[in-house]
Amino acid sequence: MGIRTEYFAAPSDEVAATALRTPGGPADPDQRTDLPRFDAVAVPSMDPFIMLGGLAGVLSGRPYGEVTAHPRHGTLVCSGGDEGPWIVTVSQTLADDLASAAPTRLARAAREWSATAPHAVPPRQLAAALLPLAALATRAADLGHGLYCWTSLTE
């Protein structure tokens, strides 16, 4: 069993919670418009707790325990039950750090992050995940939205 993660932007926790009603995730198209319900990116195997905590520490230069103690780091917004899906917050500090990071900073962060990741993840794989996540963070910042993670178990 694995984990599926989609990061998405929403103007509030209440609006983000509506993504729970989209069984395919926040990028699922609205049946009336055929457009995605949320601006979202799939980032495989990047859980919003441990992996993003490591990323937040690398980007901010702060200890892992400090960044994961942030009140919005992985805070549950809503739950679909024991098997998910779940929607959790991404701290605004991390969202801001992602939005402001140049591609060279993201590549350097991926190398540093790879060295501290709990599972061996190649820096290229992390960098490939960071670029769309940072672009999402930039679009969210432009709209004054926050970042969220829709997470579900997979078989």
Q: Key terms for this structure?
A:
155 residues; alpha+beta; five-stranded antiparallel sheet; 6 helices; 19% strand
Strand order of the largest sheet: 2-1-5-4-3
Poorly predicted residue ranges: none
Q: On the 0-100 scale, what is the average pLDDT?
A: 91
Number of helices: 6
Q: What Rg is obtained from the alpha carbons, in whole angstroms?
A: 15 Å
Q: In percent terms, what proportion of residues is strand?
A: 15-25%
The overall strand count is 5
Q: Main sheet?
A: 5 strands, antiparallel
Distance between the terminal alpha carbons, to the nearest Å? 5 Å
Shape: globular
Order of helices and strands: EHEHHEEHHHE
- Percentage of residues assigned to helices: 40-55%
Question: What is the structural class?
Answer: alpha+beta
How many domains in all?
1
How is this structure best summarized?
The chain has 155 residues and is α+β, with helices and mostly antiparallel strands. 42% of the residues lie in helices and 19% in strands. A 5-stranded antiparallel beta sheet has the order 2-1-5-4-3.
Please tell me about this protein's structure.
The chain is α+β, with helices and mostly antiparallel strands. The protein has one domain. It has six helices and five strands; from the N terminus they run βαβααββαααβ.
